[in-house]
Write a structure and sequence with these properties.
Layout: H1 2-20, E1 36-48, E2 56-67, E3 70-82, E4 88-98, E5 107-119, E6 125-141, E7 146-156, E8 160-162, E9 167-169, E10 173-183
């Protein structure tokens, strides 16, 4: 786990260096040929489609860069809080967002992949794969920000745990996700 944290820290430092060196006027902010630092936050909910009663309220914050048709490329962290029990997941991920063209559009694609730190019932902890793939729609766009809504699929890997006193069959989670967010 330590190498993953070190890798994410190094990626954030490199992306911040790219963003610090690229001054962009507000008019050029979006879809500029220059590389610019960007950050954003999302809040939403995920409905568990596996029948494990693990629907969540989700919060994410991410930092990275943008350039031309790449609306966002960077790293992020989230907090996924289960609403019916005391389980929690904290995803650490690399994120990529694009609309595949050099001009503003309404729709875009958002992909996130990384690791999920899962804190499960009875003080069990495990780390598993995290993934999100979705379609986003821009709601409002200004010179310095844009707001959006995301609709997609979220995967959180969880595994079977056996111990001396009990066994838990924690299956992986597949969720339908809706988020609203803003990017600066």
């Amino acid at each position: 786990m330590k190498p993953l944290v070190n890798l994410l820290t190094a990626a954030v430092m490199v992306l911040c260096a790219f963003g610090a060196g690229a001054a962009v006027t507000p008019e050029e902010q979006f879809y500029s040929p220059k590389t610019a630092f960007t950050w954003g936050a999302d809040a939403g909910a995920s409905i568990d489609m596996t029948g494990n009663d693990m629907s969540t309220v989700d919060f994410d914050i991410y930092f990275g860069m943008r350039r031309r048709w790449i609306e966002f490329l960077g790293v992020g962290v989230g907090a996924d809080i289960m609403v019916t029990n005391s389980c929690r997941s904290f995803p650490l991920y690399a994120a990529f967002r694009t609309n595949f063209v050099n001009r503003p559009t309404i729709a875009f694609m958002d992909v996130r992949i990384g690791a999920s730190l899962n804190y499960l019932e009875h003080n069990h902890q495990q780390t598993g794969l995290y993934g999100f793939a979705g379609v986003g729609f821009n709601l409002a766009r200004g010179r310095r920000f844009s707001s959006h809504i995301l609709v997609g699929y979220t995967y959180r890997e969880r595994r079977h745990i056996s111990g001396p006193e009990m066994e838990h069959d924690f299956g992986s989670l597949s969720c339908a996700t809706v988020k609203i967010g803003v990017v600066f």
